[in-house]
Amino acid sequence: MNAPSSVTVNKRSYAFPKDPVVVVCIDGSEPDYMEQAMAAGRMPWLASALPGGADLRADCVVPSFTNPNNLSIVTGQPPAVHGICGNFFYDPAKDAEVMMNDPAYLQAPTIFAAFQQAGARIAVVTAKDKLRRLLGHGLALKAGEAVSFSAEKADEVSLAENGIEGVLEMVGRPVPSVYSADLSEFVFAAGVKLMASMRPDLTYLSTTDYIQHKHAPGTEGANDFYAMMDGYFARLDAAGAVIVLTADHGMNAKHKSDGSPNVLYLQSALDEFLGAGKARTILPITDPYVVHHGALGSYATVYLPKDADRAAVAGFVEGLEGVERVLSREEAAEAYELPAERIGDLVIVTEKTRAVGTSPEKHDLTGLEVPLRSHGGVSEQRVPLVVNRPVSGVEGRKLRNFDAFDIALNHAEASRSAAAE
């Protein structure tokens, strides 16, 4: 099959790759993590690659959570287009609060599905299984042509479900704990092996933010993690790949000086203002892996009873300590490019050092081994956009993390060997 010169998906056109492209979503990676690790001499490959590459910055999607941003990166569009506006949401059609990891909620095709149809080989490896079905949606999974699997369920892969088998043998590592740095390392080890055996045209590697929730930039735990990644980036670079490093969101401390969580319990406050159970507070950070953050982020949506005075409630919430911004459904949909039908009557964003919860009894914080670090608000919107090749044609442009594939395919310089073909 002759490859086309370009592929158009979701109203954006991408050049067909001449070199393998690897986009890495480093979960929870604010730019300071890389800067501190390089300053400590822990990322020698990145330090050597940047002078000949591009060290850019971008804004992620708000809410700054995993699912909305990963799906934005792989569709090239904001949640208003692809429909995934949280890890968790209230589904009015079902009158139920549900995880947003079912492909039925996805309203746009991925870049991967479009490129596979054009003849490209695709590899998608995620840390957590919650993302796998969304990211791999629309792919015809077949050995050597398209694979999609998670490190978390690496022992359960099959040709029918994942387009690959024998992943543990291929990687040479056991199934890692979901609460460990090993989960992310498995993703990179698999990516390197796939590059050697399958040489995908497009590879997407998505990690977990377990380390970032526990370790601030520049700490030993953080630097160890970034040093590990740097070694794998060097191997992918040596294989001739165009590498783009970005993140789904940043991370900030959300605790008081004594180390206790700094939380606004919004449902409790609304119960006092409106009456118990009148309003419904939804925390879109919620997912099956809450041990390291207790389902506490900096973004919430609120559903109000039909007879509620929305402006009065918004004014009450705006007056609560730690609230940065209160938006109506319509305002939030416009400001943050969200699907209006999938968010509440009000959207609440808290300040950089404040998390928002429902009520104290609904949050199990016994798993917090260190002071709370989390994300979700505008304060965690700035993320890296690093490329191992020179980049042109983006000067003066406001970049988003979901421009990663556009940068890699349309603006990064091809290798000399590829350009000569």
TrEMBL record:
Molecular function terms, GO-annotated: phosphonoacetate hydrolase activity
Keywords assigned by UniProt, alphabetized: Hydrolase
EC annotation from Swiss-Prot or TrEMBL: 3.11.1.2
Catalytic EC class: hydrolase
Entry superkingdom: Bacteria
InterPro entries documented for this protein: Alkaline_phosphatase_core_sf, Phosphodiest/P_Trfase, Phosphonoacetate_hydro, Phosphonoacetate_hydro_insert
Coiled-coil intervals, chain numbering: none
NCBIfam families: hydr_PhnA (TIGR02335)
Name of this chain's protein: Phosphonoacetate hydrolase
